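Incident log, structure service

09:12 report received: a user says their structure output differs between two submissions of the same chain.
09:20 pulled the input from the user's history:
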Amino acid sequence: MIKIRYETQRLSLRFFTLMLILFIFQVGFGLLLALQQADQTLLAGTLNFNVARAEHLNLGILWVLSGFIGLILFVGPLLSERELAAPGLIKFLFVALVAVVIWNVITQALAQQGIAGWWLGQPWLHEGLEYLEAGRLADVVILIGFAILCYVVLRTFPPVERWNEIHWGLGLGVLALTAVWVFGLFSVDRLDLSEYFRWYVVHYWVEGVWEVIHISLVGFLLVLMFGANIKSVGYAVFWGVSMVWLSGLLGNAHHYFWIGTPEFWQFWGSLFSALEPLPLIFCFWHIYLDAHHDRRPLENAPAFYFILGSVVLEQVGAGILGFTMTFALTNVWSHGTWVTPAHAHLALFGTFGMLGIAGAYYAMPLLKQQTKFDQRLGKLAFWLVFIGILGMAFAFAIGGTIQVFHYRTLGLDWFGGDVFPAMGIYKLLVPFFGLVFLIGAGVIVYDLLTLDQRQHIPSIPAATRTRTHGRWSSPLSGFEAGLWLLGTWFFGALITLGLLSFNLPRVQSGDPTLPYLLAGLGYPGLLLTTLLLVWRFLASLAARGRLQLPLSAHAGQGMAVPITAV
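09:34 re-ran on a clean worker, output below:
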């Protein structure tokens, strides 16, 4: 029976379990929000929409962080070839994280009563800033938790002179995770200045910190799963991290357009926001090359499915849809409309949530000593959540386009009922696809939490497997992968032109034909191409020969691979 080489890796299991519990609750709040969009009277006065939305956002951040912490703690000993430092602090970190979750859920309800707990000029119970609703007391606990994670990682890693690029990516990532949070630890009376510093935290966490950790973790998981060369992976991680920080730091300026900052930020914010997709394109090629470099088999298909989903949706949700709506000339129309959550759902869940789930599918079978688990549920769950999130993005995007025209261009009354009926069908599509997503999330949670309690189906020997022939399952060449990627950007260009067309006098005078036509071609084309790209990628991997290589077996079972820099 396969054993975990480092006992402290088992500490990651509690974080993965917490991640799964918070995930299902967060999705439940999301479905409630979708139903409240369709019926505005649902639970009004009991659990108002703004409170449910804050719970949905905060639980999303918390379960993603739980997954990141779990995965970092699992791979840390493999990267360092030693046990984790300070296991007692890790146990305290878990308790603190649970306390923050409970505190956050309780204090969000206080917002409905207008209670923030002001004392000494600080909101100790509830802050009320979007994405940063937690009060100052929770903020301090979170800072301590990040500092503990940073300390554990840096103490576990070997001396700096032995670090490779993955060490540097994770090391700088956890350090920045702690440092950036400081910008959210004080209250500013001026709204524009408060928003200025709020986006330091929200944006830099994503483009400056989470992206760095994401690229590093994806790279090391590929080393473990495929035995990819650590130097070539490190090269990809280095350039990915460099481009993230080059584009992401000044790209923060696209949040400055409408909060009273100087006008020159419209140019610089638009310019560097346009550069932010570059590292995401690089990340896709990184995973393509490593997955195809020597035709290694998929020992753990669900883990790779979610890694691929993470990288592709990072490209589509964060990259393309982020690109389409962050120019000043498009953001003036899309900001605060349903166009925004189309981007946000694919970016946050797709990029970071899927990586946490991938980490759980890689680590939990090893931690529970069930490496021969039945992988069919994991594959089914992937397609359910993948189709569900793409469907929700479609409903948000098309509904948002209608919203922009009626609400922003014609200036019709939202609350008076002028805009609401125009978006009616899409307000029904969101809970429909939300239900599909919820079923998939339930399958994930059930599958991972009961791995060691169900009968497992032994893998079919390679010689007896039926190999699928045909063009769709043939090896995926780099040229074809590039064409798929180019197709997503073509439809992204149509979406961008559609948002830009709202500036035309003809559209502003009441003719929505052009933006509706471009959105009607762009969004379905982008999301369908994304679906087909992932299907094609996975079909090409599933059909290839299963090479029985020693390193493949070891890597698939979570054995340590020498990774320190030469």
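09:41 both user submissions now match this output. Likely a transient worker issue. Closing.
09:42 reviewer note: Confidence is low (pLDDT under 50) at residues 460-466, 545-566. The radius of gyration is 23 Å.
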